[in-house]
Amino acid sequence: MGNALLTPIHRSLGIGASEFDLALVDQAVAASVIEDADLDWKAKLPDFSSDDARLELCKDVAAMANTRGGLVVYGVRENASRAEARVNVDVLESTQERLRQSLYLFLRPFVTDIRVLVAEDPTAPGFGVLALLVGRSPDAPHQVGRDGLDRIRFPYRDGATTKFMREHEIARAYSHRFDGRADAQTRINAIFDKAASNHAKDGSDWLIGIAVPLLSHRSSAPRLQKAVVEAVLSSGQGLSTDLLPEADDRHEALGEVSVASASEYHRRLRRSVVGGNGSRYGLAVHFELADDGGVIFDSGFRRLESEANPTLTVERIESFMVDLVSLASATANLLGVYGTWVVGVEIDHGSTPFSIGRLDRYAGGQDEFERIDTEIVFPAAPVELLDHARQLSLDVLEQFASSHLVKLPAGPS
């Protein structure tokens, strides 16, 4: 399920996450799936030589980003807003790049939460269906227009129709933008506090990871079923192993958790909780998946008998970061919560200094750790996930005046 996504097409068909491919598109056509606020059928690609056509492209994307995100699909003819037939379009990399470049022309601020999806027809190489997966944007409202030539407008989706905001709607959208990040930070602080309180009584030492959508979807989030939680864990474990294969010094915390045992899985308010007892790698693990997609992922680390203070190895940190970004990616993809997420890491070591270093070489104790936050746009390619895991690991090590990674490959120069 490494490439599985949950798109508006899947939701319209009432099916779970899967790859974006021609079989999915053909299923939508057979079912005459209707356009909605988050789904727009297009029979043809824009005319890249026409400013008017490229302006229309920017309008379509801005409308999705200003509303709840969605999918703009090129290569499906519609009739009365219902998918009627697949009509292959050019899906070459050069065409994908022209789409991306066109979005820079008349769209302000630029929408960063965009991914190009491709379903190529094996019987017609270079042709198939192209789609733009647009996340709900934390930078909304986005405006479209040609400087000096057009009236600047702010589009949004109202069902299958694109409309333009009025003055009071624009003012409200700007207010939501500026308040949104502050609200998100308050939410993130509360999640970290909750995660720390989970371990306050046991006196143990923990790596704490969180991953939450920057824009909350709680009000519309359905109750997650156990099968979905199991699928997220399975997909996350598979992706983590693909990114960083197992070895003698590979501490895969995700490998400790499973919902196969009823004693390890239970429901709490608007979230599912799974624990791991360390039977596989010797790591105590705590995992929570909120119905709105928020993740808490904790891994314990122990004091060595020869050490006065708890000790973290570089390998343990790198493995944890790969597990965390893999779990966040699996959650975003299988729940269909795309766009900007905040991923953060804290080390809960109580009042006791802790150490960090190689498996065979430990550094001195540390009294304080500064929490790390970063933003990741999902869906994300494997190379992007590795880069985020690498940077998170470096952010930890640099607090100990070190930047020497062990397991993660070198990033691009």
Key attributes of the depicted protein:
alpha+beta, 8 helices, 5-stranded mixed sheet, 413 residues, single chain, globular
Structure description:
This protein has 413 residues and is an alpha+beta fold. It folds into two domains: 8-165, Schlafen, AAA domain (Methyltransferase, Cobalt-precorrin-4 Transmethylase, Domain 2), CATH 3.30.950; 180-400, no CATH class. The chain has helices spanning 8-13, 22-30, 51-66, 93-103, 167-198, 226-243, 314-335, 382-397; strands at 39-42, 70-74, 76-79, 82-86, 89-90, 107-108, 114-120, 127-134, 143-144, 155-158, 161-164, 205-213, 265-268, 271-276, 285-290, 295-301, 311-313, 339-348, 355-358, 361-362, 372-378. The strands form six sheets. A seven-stranded antiparallel sheet has the order 13-14-15-16-12-18-21, sandwiched between helices. Strands 1, 2, 5, 7 and 8 form a five-stranded mixed sheet that branches. A three-stranded mixed sheet has the order 17-19-20. Helix 6 crosses helix 7 (314-335) and helix 7 (314-335) packs across helix 8. The radius of gyration is 23 Å and the shape is globular. It starts with 7 loop residues before the first helix and ends in a 16-residue tail after the last helix.
Q: Which stretches are low in confidence, meaning pLDDT under 50 for 5 or more residues running? A: 359-363
Number of domains: 2
Distance between the termini: 31 Å
Query: How are the strands of the largest sheet arranged?
Result: 13-14-15-16-12-18-21
Number of helices: 8
Instruction: Estimate the helix proportion, in percent.
Output: 25-40%
Order of helices and strands: HHEHEEEEHEEEEEEHEHEEEEEHEEEEH
Count of extended strands: 21
